[in-house]
Amino acid sequence: MDGFETRAIHDGQPPDAASGAVVTPITLSSTFVHEEVGKHAGYEYSRSGNPTRRAYEECLASLEGALDGFAFASGMAAEDAVLRMLAPGQRVVIPDDAYGGTFRLVSKVLAPAGIDWTVADLTDLDALERDWPDGAALVWVETPTNPALTIVDIVGLSALAHERGARVVVDNTFATPFLQRPLELGADIVVHSATKYLGGHSDVVGGFVGTSDPEIAERVGFLQNAVGAVPSPFDCYLVLRGLKTLAVRMERHCENASAIVTMLVRHPAVSRVLYPALADHPGHAVARRQMRDFGGMVSFLAAGGEDAALEIVARTRLFTLAESLGGVESLIEHPARMTHASAVDSPLAVDPALVRLSVGIETTDDLVADLRHALDATS
Ligand SMILES: Cc1ncc(COP(=O)(O)O)c(C=O)c1O
Description:
binds pyridoxal-5'-phosphate; 7-stranded mixed β-sheet; 14 strands; 5-stranded mixed β-sheet; alpha/beta
């Protein structure tokens, strides 16, 4: 099999048969000709299937080591398709620091539809084994998590869940397939917010589901068409274009994050740095095993509490105050009041002193200086 970077640039994207175009065309047509009834070139109607979308799905499925993949209009639409596989009375287990939108989808949309849910600490596999939630059919994993960067042992958790007859989904948004491939580690399904590193330029919203289980693939493919939360051909083109440079971008994100962490751990305005490369991070050993590198996301606690955290996020110049992550530009945010505001007063509430960084690929020294300047002003 070709290497990751080669597959990112070529898989699913042969030169266009009709024109010879080297870059996959954006096929805007909503409908496709039937030569005669029941005979067509593989596409009928763009919600059901579109050539640009198919190229993107094949490429990303290949990068994840999945048999098949399905693109959605957003990460939440992808999550919704996976969770729709549950029947009323079945249970989903979600991590105790899940992305706020996942928590909202489960607690406010699925629960009223009869899906049971449990919040659990997925880092403690012994406790999970002891108190295995009744009727658990699906375990939802994020690793690293958003925003605490907690690491879950995908191999160990998959073995436990499979013993109990449950399936495992991994939200691989933070790591991307360049750093971690959940299906190779035993998970059944991988989901993405393609809005983040896969697109990589903060100019597209998208989601993806990948699996090597033919039964799951058939159901997700059915739901993609039946529910219809599909991305536009232009959005598919943007993510496909992003995938081509994913490897080099991720290398630089990791390099810059590492330099930022080196500064943060020594700064008096910071009481704790959450980054899996640090030896004192509880998930360090597992992260070393299951990830190629530690990623571009860094969180830290402001020593001065919430007021200091708010001051820091207001003072940076290059780190732009904004939600989202994974783009080439560096972003800073206050999860308790921004991305995770929907989890306030819940078991998933975030420490208000927490600041989250999405470290971009700008010049390393500029990023370190920008953040140091904001921290100096608060210490
Ligand atoms: C880890 C994670 N999963 C899923 C989502 C949802 O994706 P989207 O915003 O593309 O719907 C996000 C969004 O921030 C996320 O951070």
